[in-house]
Design a protein that fits this description.
Length: 295
């Protein structure tokens, strides 16, 4: 066991892979992936081993939509017991908040409630704020009228642009969206869902080994985590992502028709997707840096 532990401001864990909303351009691809629930026993194993080499300021339970998981409270109890993080945060769209179990408020330290346009909410804000105040929980009402169009379906061919995406990605470096998923530790949430998301478009992609660290059976867990966090070379997933350079678009919910169009849409025009205020035109070379997907 290392004398010191790797420190992260926050780590994430996806309780579900699906959501009760269908937001376009979801970083976790929850609007287009099939239903999936995290396994409680696997979560305990991952957290117990990871906690020997890493400590976090927060563990954020995300999704999909975490309130969809019938064992939500049990996951929170394990996180509290293992003490891998100093605070437990629930990140939710709030649609099911009026059905939240009473124990929830005893087990969390904070709550992010993402508010999307044109969605009906059945909870009462004053009641939620009162519950949070009574239990010493901070609550953030996160207005989210826009999503970033960062996930691509065609490979970025320019190595210069891929490196720039990685070096300037807030998700990986500032916001600490490092994610624990199925026994592996990832540097950013979108990289977790890159393989299944691209598979829906007929593109083969493998990134588990190169973009993440194995948690179990790894005698060098501390060293490998430290190396991943200090990594200077782009992730393989960066070849299909614009990171913090992506421009924003008004959020909308995918209907069945829009989902079909979303999955069969033509390759992106990179120049349209990159925020012109964040990048200089000279980057758009070699047909916008895009090329055919690798086999």
């Amino acid at each position: 066991m290392p004398l010191h532990k790797v420190w992260r401001p926050a780590i994430e864990f996806n309780l579900t892979e699906h959501c009760n909303l269908r937001c376009t351009h979801c970083d976790h691809a929850s609007s287009i992936l099939p239903p999936g629930f995290a396994d409680l026993a696997s979560f305990r194993r991952d957290m117990e081993v990871l906690s020997t080499a890493l400590e976090a300021g927060e563990i954020k339970f995300v999704g999909g939509e975490p309130l969809l998981h019938p064992q939500l409270v049990d996951f929170l109890k394990i996180a509290k017991e293992v003490q891998i993080a100093r605070r437990i945060i629930l990140v939710t769209n709030g649609v099911l908040l009026h059905k939240a179990p009473d124990e929830l408020w005893e087990l969390i330290d904070g709550m992010w409630i993402s508010i999307y346009p044109h969605i009906k909410y059945r909870f009462d804000w004053e009641s939620v704020q009162r519950l949070c105040d009574d239990h010493g929980i901070f609550v953030w009402r996160k207005e989210t009228p826009e999503f970033s169009e960062r996930s691509l379906i065609q490979e970025i061919r320019s190595k210069e642009l891929v490196k720039m995406v990685f070096e300037n990605c807030n998700l990986a470096h500032l916001e600490s969206c490092h994610t624990v998923y199925e026994g592996r530790y990832y540097m950013c949430a979108p990289s977790v869902w890159m393989e299944p998301r691209l598979a829906l478009h007929g593109t083969a992609f493998e990134n588990r080994e190169s973009d993440s660290v194995a948690i179990h059976g790894n005698p060098n867990l501390y060293e490998d985590l430290d190396s991943l966090i200090r990594r200077e070379e782009p992730l393989e997933a960066c070849r299909y992502c614009l990171g913090s350079w992506a421009r924003s678009t008004p959020n909308e919910q995918l209907t069945k028709k829009l989902t079909a169009e979303f999955l069969t849409r033509k390759p992106e025009d990179l120049a349209r997707l990159v925020d012109p205020e964040l990048i200089v035109p000279r980057t758009f070379t070699d047909q916008n840096g895009l090329g055919p997907a690798r086999p």
